[in-house]
Design goal:
The chain is an all-beta fold. The protein contains no helices and 34 strands.
Length: 295
């Protein structure tokens, strides 16, 4: 029989709560530091709230699965001892607030909506955002994803409340795979994708500046499209379409585009803004349109 609530005290000294097994209670509030001592699943019908730090007992050794309508992290995760896995279910919302600026786990899978109340940096091998990712205040909170493997965005980023910035590191691959919606969208003041980008659905990126630091490819040749709306600079620093070419790529009329490498699309490549070449470039397309000056 599930408990009504589980609450620990707020002693932030040497004492902490060690969780080595599953816990089921309608409401769970952990006021003190929490260590995960064995693979554990926390299940609630209302909320699970981590007021203090959350760590594994040994670095990379323990898994934590959270099933709750609302989950709130108010302090760092895995800063002292990384988790092997951090996973939330697909219902409800996960909130990062107060001091929850660091999330470290080998595998990070946030299947529910995510709301950033602080600037958050995740570090792991894979990071999966199964539903929407939004800021609390428009153009304020930031998300930095450091993943040596695959980073997946399966729904809109900044679709309700835009991010201050979205940044990925140069290792691994970012996949835009909108299983929740028919098209992908990223909205932030600054979008910097330093790793390889794989576009599995039609995608629109809206920002002041957009930087693609590495290669860009589609999933099925000629099937996916990319629209970039940036009032500042859009920089293509890696080869596009070398492995699997996109169908169409379009930039808006505001700002300018910088091209450092070759771009290949199946159908139309349209630059509605001024273009500057920062490296040797070959354009391959059925139709290529340059609506403003090329320098």
């Amino acid at each position: 029989t599930a408990l009504n609530s589980v609450t620990t005290d707020d002693d932030a000294g040497a004492d902490s709560t060690m969780i080595k097994a599953n816990i089921t209670a309608a409401t769970q509030t952990y006021n003190d530091p929490v260590k995960i001592g064995g693979n554990a699943t926390l299940t609630a019908s209302s909320t699970i709230d981590f007021i203090n730090t959350l760590n594994g007992n040994t670095a990379g050794g323990q898994e934590l699965i959270i099933n709750s309508p609302d989950t709130e992290f108010r302090n760092t995760i895995g800063a002292t001892a990384t988790l092997k896995k951090l996973q939330t279910d697909s219902s409800g919302t996960t909130y990062f607030n107060t001091s929850a600026t660091t999330v470290k786990a080998t595998t990070i899978t946030l299947n529910d909506d995510v709301v950033l109340g602080v600037n958050v940096a995740t570090t792991g091998t894979t990071a999966t955002f199964g539903r929407s990712v939004d800021a609390t205040i428009a153009a304020t909170e930031t998300l930095t994803v450091n993943a040596s493997g695959i980073t997946t965005f399966s729904a809109a980023v900044g679709g309700t409340t835009s991010l201050g910035s979205l940044i990925t590191d140069s290792a691994g691959t970012t996949t835009i795979d909108t299983t929740v919606a028919d098209t992908g969208s990223i909205t932030a003041t600054t979008v910097t994708l330093n790793d390889k980008v794989l576009i599995k659905d039609d995608t629109t990126i809206t920002a002041t500046t957009v930087t693609f630091g590495n290669t860009i490819n589609g999933l099925v040749a000629g099937a996916e499209s990319l629209i970039v709306n940036a009032s500042g600079v859009t920089a293509f620093n890696g080869i596009m379409g070398a492995t699997t070419k996109l169908g169409d790529v379009t930039t808006d009329a505001a700002g300018s585009a910088q091209i450092k490498a070759s771009l290949t699309v199946d159908d139309e490549l349209t630059f509605n803004e001024a273009v500057s070449l920062t490296g040797n470039t070959t354009i391959t397309a059925t139709t290529a349109r340059f609506q403003e000056a090329i320098t």
